[in-house]
Amino acid sequence: MIGFATDMTEHPAARTIASRHRLRVWEPIPWALAVVFYFALPNHLGFGTELLVTILFALSLDLALGYAGIVTLGHAAFFGAGAYSVGMLANHGIWSEPITGLVIAGAVAACVGLASGLVLLRTSGLTLLMLTLCTMALLEELANLGHEYTGGFDGLTFSPPPLFGLFEFNPLYPRTQYLYVLAVLFLCFVFVRTLVYSSFGHSLTGIRENMLRMHAVGAPVRARLVICYMISAGIAGIAGALWAQANAYVNLSTLGLDRAATVLIILVLGGYGRLYGAFAGAVAYMVLSHFLAKYYPTAWQLGLGLLLVLIALFARNGILGIGEAMLNHFHRKRSAS
Amino acid sequence: MIVEVDVASIVLGGLAAGMVLFIVSVGLSVTMGLMGFVNLAHGGFAMLGGYVIVYAMKAWGISFVSALLIGFITIAAVSVVFERLLYARLYRATELDQVLLTIGLVFLMIASVTLVVGPQNQQLVLPRSLQGQVDLGFIQYRAYSLMLIVVGTLIMIGLWVGFERTNIGAQIRATVDNRRMAESLGINVDRLFTMTFAFASGMAALGGGLGAEFLGLDPQYALKYLVYFLIVVAVGGLGRVTGVFYAALLIGVLDFVLKKYLPKGGTVFIFALTIILLLWRPQGLFSRKAS
What we know:
The complex is a heterodimer.
Chain A: H1 5-10, H2 12-18, H3 29-40, H4 45-67, H5 76-91, H6 98-120, H7 125-145, H8 147-150, E1 156-157, H9 175-196, H10 199-209, H11 211-216, H12 221-247, E2 249-250, H13 257-270, H14 277-295, H15 297-314, H16 318-336
Chain B: H1 2-35, H2 42-60, H3 64-85, H4 95-116, E1 133-135, E2 140-142, H5 143-165, H6 167-177, H7 179-184, H8 189-215, H9 221-224, H10 226-236, H11 241-261, H12 267-280
Antiparallel strand pairs in B: 1-2
């Protein structure tokens, strides 16, 4: 095999694999748009902040669902764990500095992910689906039960101190929030991007595609899945903590089935297992729901239901998948003529 | 004496709730076990059935029993259309696709009902014969709850006989255990799927109607109780009528007791118990397949 190494790298398939991780021309565009949004629509920064948090949350789910193939209905458990970590620490006056708060929240959520992953990932299929759902419901009920510490149904409010002691979190003009969330999203994205193109990321894809074969080639399947689940949980926890800090409160909605189902829908709408699916899905879903859900909630639900049915039946790769198919079609037509 | 009466009334109330859980969930257990289809829209069929039953009684003034029958038949017929047009395309698809399809269907059902009927709760008016109390000797108890316990037990016996002692039941059991072998033996699995799906959705409709009196009936019903139905199925085991029966009664009584003595957050124990049970026996507590 070594003797053929030079020939192997000449092979088009080998070249594609070797250049997969390279930065594509269009990749800076979403980030440029995010900066343009800040200057162009200063009155909608609250919405923008919510959108960026949703992208980060969907990105964390993409790691578990899209790359490792862990089908979960309970990802909001980690979002909530992160949100409650910063909320409770700040509300009880223990710790309120935002950035270290994020780190703590990410660590707490990752621990929850590690603990539950170690136990839950021994199962698969319907049992796994049920267990993720039950774990989330359990955390939600615990948060409801411990109302002395968590505020129960009403939730907790808190006021994060200025970022670096300089930039105020102003709830009416959420400029600091927007840039802060954008910066964290960027860092997390770079981390996830590096991870999925590493050998670790490739082994996750292998497990998703054929678990039996990965066992056969000697990959530590269970350990990889648990680690991936833990990292995904940590990022979801950071997203939850950002949500809590940006809104200056935390409540039971961070842990609910609604949130878990929504993030799943967003990721699938954009296209899972392709990094930017989280961006496409979150933008499409949030913009539509921002305008439709407020005025025509029932029509919105009807349209959403129809969309889900259509995606499940015809467009399993979401918006990005459709775009890719159209591009391919276009290329083939051009090379044919 | 008072403590005894208290215990009896809690157990009876829990059993009645458990019977409704059983009637709705048993269909879900059979379809998920038989077809391996994650059908999150099952609660939606129960909700639609409840609406048909309440509407039939209000609009045509027919009796409760005939309304239940109409609800069963209507939803069974409607579900055949769903099964042939949508579900059948995804039998071999991944769980994620099945989850998406059925969540989409739930949204469609909730939105359509909200558009047509409205978001408010629908009141089910019980026939006079079921409204009062019945003297059981040691306790006075609601006639309707007692009726539910009797009806649930009869359905359980009927299903058990149907499953264990008839040809169709044997075909279903064979397909649950080994689909390819069953097909090789000449069982028409496609037709079996359609029939079972229709029956299961009809049962859901029946449960939706029977439970509407104390579970309420509004469009959100389809999602509100879904976790309970899924827990019963997961604990009872896929495709196991008796397992689902015991699991439903267990969850029903437990829920009733916890709501009474720990009104805040008592459900924590139900979720914790479910997690432990599923880890201990992933195939369900009462499953024959448990290893």
